[in-house]
């Protein structure tokens, strides 16, 4: 997997926060990153204090913190002082009702101001905040609340009636349901959040939590029917703050937009915590994707740092470069992508259209923060994940039954592993500690991803270990095949799986969606097969291509290859609760 194109840093607008990667890697580490926070060494540490209160304490209360735009045209702005009052008020609301340290607060709210205040207020009282996708159906909601032993729930009245009310009796730990405005009459068994907050004074002293106290719970889909509950602690804020500055090039005078839903770990770590720790202004768009609306928001709000997903980037590519060029986007300083590997053509396209590339980065729910990234002052090799954050030790390992061995040969695939001990490392899988322990070997966290490292130290994603295809002695990474297919003018998206083959063991089968103006004819399929063989060679290219209207994906944008394979082979589908559309 080698690409001739190298994109040089765009340094004309401003110098990067991290100006030299090699020097930073030698000089920076966890102790330095901890010193960037307000907390004293070996003292208490609270995420909400670092994200909100410290700015007010140091004279930044008048700075705009949140800039919210509702899907129906509403607008609301909160300064850091406003945010301190509202988060104090929510913390006080919980405390006055007997909820304190360790309380598990779940949210089914979408991108509305109440969610952001509740998340930070929960952390102030020492509680554990767990965001869920507001688009979840009743069963995944019930399952996660049961697994997480939810005690408090924030929800719209409509979602409560449709998705929670019937299951209420099966959730014995659920003591308080707070509903946002939306209906005129009271709902039995719930408390009106607005009325409750209006009756609560905005006075609360942040609980002095310890770095190892639990703070966040994120559910991530598993290959079985049971989702995994990923537990993070307050020390994760060390990573949130450091990566915001170094990996996203974020600073206090920036206007930052993270398009991720708060129900996804990115929407919490970088859609709430990280930009506020830096002291930036966070733009929040409630509405779902619309290319014209997105470009208008970028232009109108003069967004400087934009963090989005590969799926959204590919949709923008489908909408065409001319739409982007109708808008003044000259204020953009840095573009970043997360969620799944970013295809090389998307990096090149963004560099041509925006005058700068999207910078891919890699991390997981389990890592809690960005681990490997393409940085503002570093050359980009399109298709690469980049290099590890200073302080992060990443390795490509050969994992055997009895030992793990580093792979030193450049561009040789192996298991991507991270040396344990980084601040935002997950501390457990909820009620699945044995599974958690199996994620570590000899001091390494085994990510479940396969990757390669080139001679310059750049990491390249190959695929999930379960997704890699073994065909006639070749190990084939789906991402490489998918990227080659997407280079064809007719293909919008692609997903690749291995299917059984008597001669080769497995053969490569591709599923594609088409751009507007193209039809799934036999001639087009032949053309795509030929295109893939020319790009990849007969040993790696798909032998079958099937055109689909849509590909199954999670609401965070990841294409679910395992679901395609399960349906193709008639296997159990496992946990499908995070599907964008239940189909």
TrEMBL record:
Its EC number is 6.2.1.1. GO terms for molecular function: acetate-CoA ligase activity; ATP binding. Residues 480-558 form the AMP-binding enzyme C-terminal domain. It comes from the Bacteria. One of its GO terms (biological process) is acetyl-CoA biosynthetic process. PROSITE patterns: AMP_BINDING. GO terms for cellular component: cytosol. InterPro entries: AMP-bd_C, AMP-bd_C_sf, AMP-binding_CS, AMP-dep_synth/lig_dom, ANL_N_sf. Residues 61-430 form the AMP-dependent synthetase/ligase domain. The keyword Acetylation applies. Pfam families: AMP-binding, AMP-binding_C. Keywords: Acetylation, ATP-binding, Ligase, Nucleotide-binding. This is acetate--CoA ligase. The gene is acsA.
